[in-house]
Design a protein that fits this description.
CheY-like_superfamily, Alpha-Beta Plaits, alpha/beta, Arc Repressor Mutant, subunit A, rod-shaped, five-stranded parallel β-sheet, transcription regulation, Rossmann fold, about 400 residues
């Protein structure tokens, strides 16, 4: 329902217009009828009408002054100006405030209704355009994701579609995070949130692919700031979820160049991952050698090895060891110790259980050694020895 306000110092005109128009037939309602500009202004402040039908000359505040004040405060308010003969100079000035509808006194019902229909039609068109714009803004983030995804995956996207949905920056960069492992895929939503929090207004959009999480960000010239933020994302991912995604930053270019930027970043990511895998494999071999050498050491544990021999974070080493071997560090140590005990028992029957426990890192605790031995082999050390001495 469109609200209409009448302002005219002639009561007969005011009452005539008020009564002759069937306001509801236009989807409108009359919210007030006043005889001077000051009262009209106060009522406008209170009611916020969509349309004001006003005389040019009124006591207190004239129609032009009223239009000027209201247009400054409520620019969407529409005016239909009532003018007397010879007042066209005033009407001309009113045009500078966007007034396009004028009625020459005396005016009949059809003149007023035609003007009302025209103004309401304009308002409806504006509202429709605003709604379209609002709807577009609401779905724009989803459209950006879809366009970026289709660009990267090789779909045919027209250049104007790219510029229409990515009008903000001339140049962008892509950040790729690996989501290939089970752990990474499980935490991809967490990673996306962390990256969004740290990158903040740099982010244009992000999209999940099969083996990567891709962020399109504004190119900021020097890569150091972005690289620092990427390091922060990796660090927070580890602090909160104990995983460190591999990441790579592309060069810069327009959004239409996203396929090239993506391949550039993916190539860097592949190289980094290959190097990291090579380094981790060498580190795991070093850990396996260390276990063989230190099996008799009762202090041997992941924490001890990390701090005293490898000088690295024990949590990171434990995760890496499990990824590479499929076993926990402590379980692997136990397996090596028991297998060494079995080998010694097969070589000689003279060695005592106490000596085995001491030589294989169980200290002066043969009872605990026997429990672990049985859990691993299904036999106590004595049963195993008899079984070796008297095979069936």
């Amino acid at each position: 329902m469109y609200k209409v306000l009448l302002a005219d110092d002639e009561r007969i005109i005011l009452e005539g217009i008020s009564n002759m128009i069937e306001w509801h037939s236009f989807g409108a309602s009359l919210v007030g009828a006043v005889q001077n500009g000051t009262d009209a202004y106060q009522l406008i402040l209170r009611e916020r009408p969509h349309i004001v039908i006003s005389d040019i000359k009124m006591p207190g505040m004239g129609g032009l002054e009223l239009i000027e004040k209201v247009s400054r405060e409520y620019p969407s308010t529409r005016f239909i100006l009532l003018t007397g003969f010879g007042q066209f100079e005033y009407a001309k000035k009113a045009m500078t405030f966007g007034v396009r509808h004028y009625l020459l006194k005396p005016c009949n019902e059809s003149h007023i209704t035609d003007s009302l229909k025209s103004v309401i039609s304009e308002l409806k068109k504006e509202e429709s355009a605003k709604q379209v714009k609002t709807d577009l803004e609401r779905i724009r983030p989803h459209l950006k994701k879809q366009v970026l995804k289709e660009l990267i995956t090789g779909e045919n996207i027209e250049a104007d579609a790219c510029s229409r949905f990515f009008a903000e920056p001339k140049n962008i960069k892509l950040i790729l995070f690996s989501v290939r492992s089970e752990v990474e895929r499980r935490h991809v939503s967490d990673l996306e949130k962390i990256a969004g929090d740290i990158l903040k207004c740099s982010v244009i959009t992000s999209v999940r692919l099969k083996d990567a999480l891709v962020f399109a960000v504004r190119a900021e010239g020097d890569d150091k700031r972005l690289e620092k933020k990427i390091d922060g994302i990796i660090r927070r991912s580890y602090e909160q979820f104990q995983f460190e995604p591999a990441a790579a930053l592309s060069g810069s270019g327009e959004i239409a160049k996203a396929p090239v930027l993506y391949e550039h970043a993916r190539s860097k990511l592949h190289k980094q991952t290959s190097e990291a895998e090579g380094q981790s494999s060498a580190l795991i071999r070093k850990m396996l050698d260390l276990i063989q050498q230190e099996a008799a050491n009762p202090k041997l544990s992941l924490k001890w090895a990390a701090r005293n021999m490898l000088y690295m974070n024990p949590d990171y080493l434990g995760k890496l060891f499990k990824q590479e071997t499929g076993e926990k560090f402590s379980s692997y140590v136990t397996k090596v110790r028991i297998e060494k005990a079995m080998a010694k028992m097969e070589q000689t029957s003279a060695i005592t259980i106490g000596t085995l426990a001491e030589e294989l890192g169980f200290g002066n605790n043969p009872k605990y050694f026997s429990l672990v031995f049985k859990k691993y082999t299904g036999y106590t050390p004595s049963e195993y020895r008899k079984r070796e001495e008297n095979p069936i």
